[in-house]
Structures are given as structure tokens and as C-alpha cells.
Amino acid sequence: MTHPADLFMDLWRRLQERRNEVRTLAHGLEVDHARTGRLADEAAERLRQGAPALEEWAGSEWAGLRLDRTLAAAQAIDAWFAPLASRYDVRADDPLPAERLEALRRLNRDGRFNADPADGQLILRPGLLARAMNIRETAPPDGHPEDFDPVDLFASLLVVPPGLTIEAERDGDPDRRIAVEYRRIAAVSDQNPGDPAWRPVIGVVPLAQAEDDLPIRRFHRDGEDWYDPTPRDFGRRAADAVAGLAAQGATFILFPEVSAGPETVSAIQQALRAQAVGGPIRYALVGVKEEVAGRPRNRAILLDRCGRMAGSQTKLHCWDLDSNQCRSYDLRDRNGRLLDCAREDIETGDRFILFELPDLGRLAVAICEDLGRTEPSAWIASGMMVDWLVTPVMDSGLTTERWQAKEGAASSRAGYCRVIVVNSMALSHRFNRTCRANGEEDKVIGACGVALLFQPRASQASAPHIQCLTLPLSDPAPGYVYSRWTPDDWPALPDPEGDE
């Protein structure tokens, strides 16, 4: 028997193939309330009779297709899933109880509602935060035609596609296709991230505190200049920070981009295991530099409370530096010549992963440059699908005026999610040296911003609340910062200026 989720996938494919017609149809239905209501009532009645009845009513490409019924049928199934996507939507009349039980069984077993993974993964659209706040609105079909996406016509369901097209690695290269995966980790949970009163403690460990903590190799290859940061081993420093943050009740601890090599990661894992029984830390996200098949990779690895690998995300876009950035970070070749530009020497990733985690919620990771690129960041935000978007970076000190604040605020506002940007301190020393050499003492960094925390507001028109965490550049003891997630106590983000 056809399951509503599988029928939705078939209807979704039809809508995607005829998206321009769907936009015109949706615009018409937006003003024709009588027709919209009649279609919705008819579709809901057919669904109460079962998915086959709804499928027959919607028609097929062979038996004659009515696009208005296709859309109404898909929206009826979307509404049927609504009780799973909102803590407030409880219905006494629960049609198709056996099908709903099967949907939950599929989700728990396969991490998706649909049967065939080749079609993608059908999941609940809103993350736990959006479900808790009952943020489940759909977008009207206005705006530029190229901006329209049929996903905006559904409040409860989201199709995670098998792949996405993202920007080219470098100018002149073709766009790339990456795989997309939703990974649901099932485990016993003792916290409820969907509770609006939940107040986790976020810890940040900027391991690279001095300039020499993160050496940057520069070299010339194929007629171009390249750079390659390689972290030193700070296993003891990392382990002490994990223990210190556990004592402060940290729930989620974060290490910035390219913070750790294999020895440091091993020390972090051991420190997590030491606090696993009775300790507060549930997850750690660690920015690592590693070699894979002879090529450097920039990754963020996710560790659970016992130090076990729960997943990883590889950086998707290179951060190539222009002349202004090379000058700011005082990047020179072996002869002391200031570089005009420098390419990041990494092998970029080919997969983007959404994690569904007990004790934390739905997490996406966008490493440095990935936050500022159109995809997959725009896709994440448009679906309002995550609870957390975490961005590890390697940059000079974070402020509420620079590009990280602008991009983090935009993602938090559009995606209705919490955003965290975490940074190391090594490049701030380079930045200060340049400022002093140019007589720009007013720009010298004293308190180095190592984390920006963003909390969305109820209205997308309102700037998010923001918390900026800093450490003194001259004496960064104890080597970590932490903050309880209490956004009502944080100021609203001022309008960021500049985009360097």
C-alpha cells in the first residue's frame, strides 16, 4: 500500500519539474481563497480515505495531471505530518494511525520518512527550536521568480536532496555537485533541546593563542603563492581546557578551525572520556588539519561525550587571500616579499551533512568561507531546518562589525537558528604587527574576540541578540571562555559595517 510519505515524494518531483507553473499557480491561490479552501478540503477528505484515494484524486502523468490538485495533495500530506513538527499541534482526530506508526518506525530505523533513499531524505522541516516556538510559517510566492522554491509552500516536511550544486572552488572553474546527507544519531537523551527554557553552556577553546602556535607555511607552486597553516601539538592545553569547562558545566565545547592535529585530538578524546560519567559535556566540535591520500584536509570532527567520533564535516570552499588580507596578516615569502595573494592549500569536501543529535538538536557546520558562500548556507537558512549553525574560523579577532557578524546574523535571522562563530587568536598577533608598522594603534587588538553567539528574534525583521566572548591577547589564561545561553540578557546586534 502506498504510504503518504512516498506519495509526497512523487508529488514533490512533479512540482520541482514544473516550478515556474507552480509559482504562478501558488500566486493565484494566494488570492483565490474559495478555490484554495475547496482544494484543501477535498484533498484532506481523500487522505482520510487513504493515500491511494488521494493519489487517484491528484491524477498522474498518464491519467491526466491537474497541477492544482498535485499541490493540494502534497500540502494535505504536509498537514498530516504537522503533529510531528510542532509541540502545539495535537489533534484528537488522527487519520491513518497505522501509516503514522510506520512513518515513525521509518524515521527511527532509516532516518527518513520515505522508502527509497535515491529520491533523497524526507524529514521534518523545522528544527527543535522552530518547533518549540511554533515557527512553521511558509513563504508567499512573491519576490523574484528565480528566488521561488516549492519548499516554501510546505511547513512540516522538507526533502533533503541527494545533492546540491555549489560554487566553483576557484574563479573560472565549473560549479560543483556535492552530496547531501541527513544523519540522525539515536541515543538516550537526558536533556530537552526543544524546551524554550533549556539553557546550555557553550565553551570555546582557542588553542592557538600565540602567533607561533599556528605556523603558516608559504610556498610557490604552479606559478602561484599558497599558504598552509599547521597547528602545533597542544594536547595538555586542550585536556586542561576540557576539564576546566566540565567544571563550569559546559554542554557543548568548540575548538576553532585548524586547531588540532592527531595528538591533540587524542588528548581531547581522553579528557572527554574522563568526564563521561556524570559530567556535563555532551559534544565537542574540533577543527582539525589532517592528511588524506597525501592531500591536506580542513575538517571539523564531532565527538560525543565519551570521545567517540560521531561525524565530521570537510571544508567545502577554499579561503583564498587577496592583497589586503595578505597585508593584514603579514604574509611574506621566504625572501620577505609581501604576497599579493595566496591560495589555501586544501582538498575541499564533496559532502554536506546535517546531524540530528540527542541532547543538542539539529546541527550544521559551515567552516569559515563556507558561511559566506551561497550554498549550502542559503539552502540551510531557507528551510529553517537546523537548531545550530556552527562556524569554526581562523581569523583576526571577531567583532560585531566584521563579515562574520554580518553573515552569522543573516543566517540566524533567515534560518531561525542559533549561530556560533568560533575563532583562534594566532592571526590577531600578525594583524597587530601590521597595524603598529602602519601607525594604526587605534586598530590594535587588545581583547581578542574568540566567539560570537547569535540568537534569532521572533520577527525576522529584528536583529538577533548577540554575545561576543573575548580573551586578553597578552594573557589569555585560562585559555577558554564559556557562556550560558541566556539571549534575553544579550544586546541586539548593531548594523554591521564593512565586509573585510
From TrEMBL:
<feature type="domain" description="CN hydrolase">
    <location>
        <begin position="237"/>
        <end position="391"/>
    </location>
</feature>
<dbReference type="InterPro" id="IPR003010">
    <property type="entry name" value="C-N_Hydrolase"/>
</dbReference>
<protein>
    <recommendedName>
        <fullName>CN hydrolase domain-containing protein</fullName>
    </recommendedName>
</protein>
<dbReference type="Pfam" id="PF00795">
    <property type="entry name" value="CN_hydrolase"/>
</dbReference>
<dbReference type="InterPro" id="IPR036526">
    <property type="entry name" value="C-N_Hydrolase_sf"/>
</dbReference>
